[in-house]
Amino acid sequence: MTSDLFLQHLSNALSLGSLYALIAIGYTMVYGILRLINFAHGDVFMLGGYAAFYGMSLFVMPWWAGFVVAFALTGVFGIALERIAYQPLRESPRISVMISAIGASFLMENLATVIFGGRPKGFPAPALFNQVIRLGAVSVVSISLFIPALTAALLAALIIIVHKTKTGMAMRAVSTDLSAARLMAVDVNRIVSFTFGAGSVLAAVGGIMWSLKYPQLNPTMGMIPGLKCFIAAVIGGIGNIGGAVLGGLLLGCIEIMTIAFLPTLTGYRDAFAFVLLIIVLLAKPSGLLGRHQIEKV
């Protein structure tokens, strides 16, 4: 493989890995606060893509306005999902909340099929994201450069919020001990709602970027990416934001590079995530950057 071809594949790997990282951050934020796996997160990803699509096509919004509206609507939906499906079960056994999350996921997929239709829709990609940029002998579509840059910017903003603001301090307190944080007058419901809202906005960003890179929408489009991003979060150390980013980038690079070097394995592409998950958990059960924790029963 020539160096130019390697760089071509590397740009695709970083782009895909950044998308996985964006969605994995939502998983890891919710788990870090509530020790809950939000299995409906992949469907929030799907909802963000559809919200932007209808904003641009049905309401004839400029692409940037459609994106902003999609972010806002998806964030509000994430907060509503937590209030309806998870908050009433906060004091219940973990298995009850997990079943509620799985039920919410199936409900969203089936409602999307009824409301949006099962036929795939083409996403109207603005010309800005389809420009071909030549870097020496390497040709890269602008969206493949925009996605890693956007992921880095959002990650930096999130780290500043978590470590430099009072809301972030409260998030870290709730993550450490929810009951003690409540005793210290932390508004736990507000912090949980903020976490779900922020995670849903990141999922919407990921869903829109995914739709720009792979311009096709369907009601189950979040299933496989959502599962892979959950795996990425576990690989990096679920509950750790940096670990989610590392896991997403690692998964994206391995997936693309393996196909590039061994094209006969293209049909097994989705299996790479599970193989990597097994290898990492056998070597380090808490994930690459995770810390060993004792689960409270």
Question: Which tags fit this structure?
Answer:
globular, 3% strand, 297 residues, mainly alpha, two-stranded antiparallel ribbon
Q: Summed up, what is this model?
A:
The protein has 297 residues and is an all-alpha fold.
Structure overview:
This protein has a two-stranded antiparallel sheet with strand order 1-2. Helices cover 71% and strands 3% of the residues. It has a domain at 25-223. It is mainly α. The termini are far apart. The longest helix is centred in the first third of the chain and has 32 residues, at 3-34.
What's the helix-strand series?
HHHHEEHHHHHHH
The chain-level structural class is mainly alpha
Classify the beta-strand content into a percent band.
Answer: under 5%
- By DSSP, the count of extended strands is 2
Q: Report the principal-axis shape.
A: globular
Helix coverage percent: over 70%
- What is the CA–CA distance across the termini? 52 Å
What summary fits the major beta sheet? 2 strands, antiparallel
Radius of gyration: 19 Å
Poorly predicted parts: none
Number of helices: 11
What is the average of the pLDDT values? Answer: 90
Kindly report the spatial arrangement of strands forming the biggest sheet: 1-2
